[in-house]
Amino acid sequence: MKMISRTALALLATAALSGSVLAQDMKKVAISTIVEVPALVETKEGVLKGLADKGFVEGKNLEIDYQNANGNMPTQQQIAKKFVGDNPDVIVPITTPTSQAMIATTDTIPVVFTTVTDPLKAKLIPQYEKPGGNVTGVSDAAPIKQQLELMRELVPDLKTIGFVYNPGLDNAIATLEELKKQAEPLGISVVESASPTTNEVALATKKLIGKVEAVYIPNDTTVVAALEAIVKIGEDVDLPIFAGETGAVARGVIGSVGLDYVELGRITGHIAARVLNGEKAGDIDAVIAYQVLTEFKVAINKKAAAAMGVELPEAVLARATEIIE
Q1: Does the predicted TM-score (pTM) go above 0.85?
Q2: Is residue 311 part of a domain?
Q3: Half-sphere exposure at residue 78, Cβ-oriented, CA atoms within 13 angstroms
Q4: Per-residue model confidence as pLDDT tens digits over 17-43
Q5: What is the span of the domain harbouring residue 267?
Q6: What one-character-per-residue DSSP string does 265-296 give?
Q7: What are phi and psi of 269, to 5 degrees?
């Protein structure tokens, strides 16, 4: 048997130690979403960009475990259990139901939620400032102040806004409350029209005819599922329809001011990086994205505006980031 030289042994020991150090330096972040739609895919991309900004690069010193529940809540709960079993350094859940599933499954692994409209109503955190426990994150509440400004520019005589929503959804209630809060100083009142099911959306919209100068559609899955029916009513009676999310503009509403979800994800990634660097999640303030973002998406649909009797000022078109002809 040949003797292994001391030099060879030393090299082997160094290699083993080096591998051990690399393993210790590798961080693991688990990311999940209830479903993949453009805004949520952009959020995930932003999270990775935000982590990279702070030196955590996938494949270099960062391992990413990404799971999509494909709209199935039991699957989402199984993903949550898997993540807890894997014990990553940080869990980043995208959307409210995903965040609720993760937080219900662990009170020890740091959780940095994102794209959650109202984390207080969803009972994810007790307050935004240093929420405590193992949770913090980023809210994607709509920039309603900026949306109201756009609506007033396009409908100069705006005094009353119709609001079609499902009263059973926490995020819709939160949006309604914020809309009323922001509209009151402007002398604008809000008329509610409830639609607990998608089949009732058209009727709820028709009830607003003659009572309001415009209709605002929140990020309410029940109502948005029937958006085309709302748009048709708006076209038939020259009632301007606006929405809380820019993606709705391509489906026929006149316009919206919305968040850049890549940038929202980037903010989330920055917070996750702070946790990876040793800070406790509960010691980091949760963030409302529109309060820290300096730029917003402005989407305008020219065809919809013409169909609903609205003239588009050049100033609005000049600052639009997306114009649908």
Answers
A1: no
A2: yes
A3: 9
A4: 444 444 458 999 999 999 887 788 999
A5: 26-140+261-292
A6: HHHHHHHHHHHHTT--GGGSPPEEHHHH-S--
A7: -60, -35
